[in-house]
Design a protein that fits this description.
Bound molecules: S-adenosylmethionine
Number of strands: 7
Helix content: 10-25%
Shape: globular
Strand content: 15-25%
Radius of gyration: 16 Å
Order of helices and strands: HHEEHEEHEHHEE
Number of helices: 6
Amino acid sequence: MTSSIPPDPFPDWFFDRDDPTPDTRFYAPTRLVTHIDDAAIEAVGRLYAELGVDGSAGEPRRVLDLMSSWVSHLRTPPAELVALGLNAAELEANAMATTRVLQDLNVEPDLPFPDASFDAVLCCVSIDYLVHPVEVLAEAARVLRPGAPVVLTFSNRCFPTKAVHGWLATDDAGRGAIVVEYLRRAGGFSEPELSLRTPPGRYRGDPLYAVVARRVPLAG
Ligand SMILES: C[S@@+](CC[C@H](N)C(=O)[O-])C[C@H]1O[C@@H](n2cnc3c(N)ncnc32)[C@H](O)[C@@H]1O
């Protein structure tokens, strides 16, 4: 896919948001809803199965779902699923979660997990809300085992008052380039691969894009 090149460094306005109030306030109401259509959700589950990050590979898997809610879109449960998000009732309703962590990543980007302790880090339709995405993704690299993937999926829908202005200012190709660039600047990952996981062209459903990169082996 071709894409525009995000500014380097990101300008000051890039991570501003129309609603700068604490995210805990906006996400306080429990939303047991889906944020993309069924076909896009199916595409996320298919991608996770292809990458072998769910339980279908038959191996023990410890998976971290960042900015999680009541569904993590995995087709089969991994051995352990840590769901990190902002709404306790939504996380409680996540039947696959084995551990639930309430944390505002825009206040505290550091992840409360040991180095190399996960087999995959996922973030579905939420990367657009992060004001410190490079710091959070550097933490994702730290907690991943060498060779393990980070899987960032996004569509063209969002809560616009909570998305960063840089995200809202561009198109799908530009958003793909932004997510790729976040991972490059985070460091610790292989070159990110961007793909469209729903049909191209005049497809009428929600598009589902994925950016996947793997933790590079640790030096030394
Ligand atoms: C559009 S929903 C997506 C939920 C889920 N990942 C999914 O695929 O359905 C955005 C999610 O991001 C979480 N979130 C938003 N801002 C956050 C923040 N600052 N820190 C942690 N989680 C956040 C919210 O709790 C919400 O569940």
